[in-house]
Amino acid sequence: MTEKSIVFFDIDGTLLDHQKNLPATTKEAIFTLKDEGHEVAIATGRAPFMFADLRKELGIDTFVSYNGQYVVFRGEVLFENPLNNAALQSITDMSVANNHPIVYMDHEDMKANVPHHDFIVESIGTLKVEHFPTHDPDYFKGRNIYQSLLFCEENEETSYEKEYSEFDFVRWHPLSVDVIPAGGSKAIGIGKITKKLGLAKENQYAFGDGLNDIEMLREITNSVAMGNAHPLAKEAAKHVTTDVDKDGILQGLQMVGLLK
């Protein structure tokens, strides 16, 4: 048997195809990895409750969620990095003044500061998840919020970036940006897991496609960008596989020698 490794997979555009379906070859490849003794983990910008069904289907209990802010190792919380609450109150005030709705997300749920907004409906609708934020403008008070979603058109986040050094802003949709703690990334969350496992860098692998995968793809020794990846993600990765719709995961795992 080959030496044990850990493989981190992004979800959207990586594990799931453009229609948010799990390709059969991907599912089979994941189970083959596990059967051969490798650790399989997820590294995503999604909230834990947004991919619970996928974890169950693939039998995965180790994951990096919220772009590194909430990390679970074999079913146990390993690392938490919530947003600064005072700064969150301040950015909420600014977003209200600009008519930019905001959603607060913890490990269990998400709530919006407005009852309804077309930007929220359109952008979250693209994720094709059952959860949808209900209205609770005070949800962030007295609890750990690991990520917020700020809904604004492209480049409108610039004024927030100038005002709030406590946060990083990562656009994931033409109408929405992730708001995470400054310096937070999938790479940092992954580092908590790889340190716990004590695996050498050459036994660490990662697959991704988006802008929020760049640090992960740069940091991990054996990184693979999907054929459908953003050009900057491809630039950051050591390898580029085929499109997610063209057996990209299977091809990539064969490319790096984890599968035959």
TrEMBL record:
<dbReference type="InterPro" id="IPR000150">
    <property type="entry name" value="Cof"/>
</dbReference>
<keyword id="KW-0378">Hydrolase</keyword>
<dbReference type="GO" id="GO:0016787">
    <property type="term" value="F:hydrolase activity"/>
</dbReference>
<dbReference type="Pfam" id="PF08282">
    <property type="entry name" value="Hydrolase_3"/>
</dbReference>
<dbReference type="InterPro" id="IPR006379">
    <property type="entry name" value="HAD-SF_hydro_IIB"/>
</dbReference>
<dbReference type="InterPro" id="IPR023214">
    <property type="entry name" value="HAD_sf"/>
</dbReference>
<dbReference type="InterPro" id="IPR036412">
    <property type="entry name" value="HAD-like_sf"/>
</dbReference>
<protein>
    <submittedName>
        <fullName>Cof-type HAD-IIB family hydrolase</fullName>
    </submittedName>
</protein>
